[in-house]
DNA sequence: CTAAAAACATGAAACGTTTCATGTTTGAGT
DNA sequence: ACTCAAACATGAAACGTTTCATGTTTTTAG
């Protein structure tokens, strides 16, 4: 059906090499250029990227692996990453592993087979061995949002320790003493750091840490919902909750709504990630906002530089500051 | 770096054909199987899907084109589609065209060059010619959420006319007479149908249609925000608003919040798409929920059947019912 | 034990490109 | 008009698979 380079050659009477050169932006005689252009139109020719990839062993394709396509942080990240990649002639194959490390491994293999030139990943943390194997094959890997302790590869993250500390400290400044945190899975560096920020502030102000106020969930709304209920059912419930990702934030709000607990009068809340959410929730929600554009920029830049070879040698760790956006969801419990 | 089929052949002393047969699940002598398996381990062999694709002219890859990666409806749709595809040995290359028909065309070409076996698309409506060209190349196309009037291809949609009518009729039943609708772009079939449902109900109840109450936006939050403000600024503002997609719904809520307009006491609202949203918003939001699983199932099924050849001939139009989930965001304006 | 059938192995050709060493044309300078 | 670079064209080989017609081995049945 589709014309190939050979058809163009036959049609124009020129050689394969000439057509190939033209296709790739090389110089050809004016007369030939016209002929080729006409033939391309006529035969509806499109480069077969598969064949090209086989020859060049560059697929001009980056694998992108994320925990879930329904995760707001991930989709807004990869949307931006894709935009940059395509600007540089690359495309992304996006895979979600549905938070399942086994599936994450499969996707890794899949992408290798697809001959991707590099992999950008938001890793589960349970596939370090497999990621190392990818690196061993000479395929660059950039992790985003999370770092992998045993892996020497480029990473782009936010200073989770610091921003978490800021959020908790803001609670403390508003006289809160029973501050709960709902964390993500323990093996994710990001979750760990956010917890550490929480603990550090407690240490700094010499507040006692009540283990009941520290809950670990997965990064799903359901989890936020359940853990929030658990917190509310405590003999001495918290006066403030720090929800450490977007879906958990949603879950917390839905639990509070269900029990008709008013924010911030009855309970203060700081959420995470989606600035739009703060406009939609009433009262306006205070939350931690991550610099999505910066994260995406840095990630793509790192990957492209590794691919072009302009960046070599030791892995880079790029760290950005998140921002605490204060709105109306926190007040002092003493003002009741 | 990576071992090829040839290396395996050399390493085992067997022929290329045998290795190939084994890789593809064919039968080989037991002794040979062992040898091959050992060699594969040893040489860390992975099939080069690029080379395979070149030979078979099947990439086992489906192109998926959506308006935006930040569109909730789209991401939840493709997340499910991907899941099904990978279950059947296919993978998806996901492209978003950022609501830009020009970019949509580029993505179409890109996917053709990538030799995708089929394309699943949520089309802008402005690329019918290009989509026809894809079909002319013998590549199956399935449109989801929207149909293309001039194109004969499979489509999976929701009965937008009907559900929109139900929503508006619900307003009418609650004594609303000034009902606003915020539609999507006019050239999108889905938007058109939702408007038609609105008009039909007005006709049915012999209500006058005030053109001021019909607003057209794009499917972004900002648009919902602005158009909602415009509605509120009308000399005689609506008593109810029907927001016809998720982002518009968010925009409407944020505009209402900004002006401290209470739902439903001061204004009734029916939103769209995200059931979780209704739990997070207070009061619980009534909304139209689309059967995402069914949409995704049908889409994938149609595509796979076209690819396997089990479905041939005239295009199928699969239509599902959406559901109106009533919560607390609508009351009669007379009960004020 | 033998012949025929069944099961498996072989290797060259092909898929649509790019590459590169070699060949041909062009036109500037004299 | 001739020479010589410079500019461009040529076509065979290669990328890593699959395919298929043919060849070889194993199994089965008589």
Automatic annotation (TrEMBL), chains A, B:
Protein name: LacI family transcriptional regulator
Keywords: DNA-binding, Repressor, Transcription, Transcription regulation
PANTHER family, per the entry: HTH-TYPE TRANSCRIPTIONAL REPRESSOR PURR-RELATED (PTHR30146:SF148), LACI-RELATED TRANSCRIPTIONAL REPRESSOR (PTHR30146)
SUPFAM superfamilies from the UniProt entry: lambda repressor-like DNA-binding domains, Periplasmic binding protein-like I
Residue ranges of domain HTH lacI-type in the record: 4-56
Entry's transmembrane regions: none
GO MF term list: DNA-binding transcription factor activity; transcription cis-regulatory region binding
Organism: Paenibacillus abyssi
């Amino acid at each position: 059906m589709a014309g190939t380079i050979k058809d163009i050659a036959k049609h124009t009477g020129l050689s394969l090499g000439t057509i190939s050169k033209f296709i790739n932006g090389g110089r050809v005689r004016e007369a030939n250029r016209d002929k080729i252009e006409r033939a391309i139109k006529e035969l509806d020719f499109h480069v077969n990227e598969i064949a090209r990839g086989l020859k060049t062993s560059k697929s001009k394709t980056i694998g992108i692996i994320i925990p879930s396509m329904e995760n707001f942080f991930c989709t807004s990240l990869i949307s931006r990453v894709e935009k940059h990649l395509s600007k540089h002639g690359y495309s992304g194959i996006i895979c979600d592993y549905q938070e399942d490390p086994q599936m994450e491994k499969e996707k890794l293999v899949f992408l290798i087979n697809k001959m991707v030139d590099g992999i950008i990943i938001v890793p589960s943390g349970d596939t370090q061995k497999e990621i190392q194997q990818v690196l061993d094959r000479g395929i660059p890997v950039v992790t985003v949002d999370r770092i992998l302790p045993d892996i020497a590869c480029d990473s782009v993250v936010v200073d989770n320790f610091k921003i978490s500390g800021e959020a908790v400290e803001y609670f403390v400044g508003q006289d809160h003493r029973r501050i709960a945190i709902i964390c993500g899975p323990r093996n994710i560096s990001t979750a760990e750091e956010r917890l550490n920020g929480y603990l550090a502030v407690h240490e700094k102000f010499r507040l006692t840490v009540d283990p009941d106020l520290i809950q670990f969930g997965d990064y799903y709304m359901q989890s936020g919902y359940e853990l929030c209920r658990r917190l509310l059912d405590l003999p001495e419930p918290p006066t403030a909750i720090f929800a450490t990702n977007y879906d958990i934030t949603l879950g917390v709000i839905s639990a509070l709504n269900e029990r008709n607990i008013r924010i911030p009068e009855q309970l203060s809340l700081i959420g995470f990630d989606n600035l739009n959410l703060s406009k939609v929730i009433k009262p306006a929600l205070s939350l931690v906002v991550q610099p999505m554009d910066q994260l995406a920029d840095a990630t793509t830049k790192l990957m492209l530089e590794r691919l072009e070879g302009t960046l070599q040698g030791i892995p880079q760790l790029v760290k950005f500051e998140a921002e605490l956006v204060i709105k109306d969801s926190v007040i002092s419990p003493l003002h009741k």
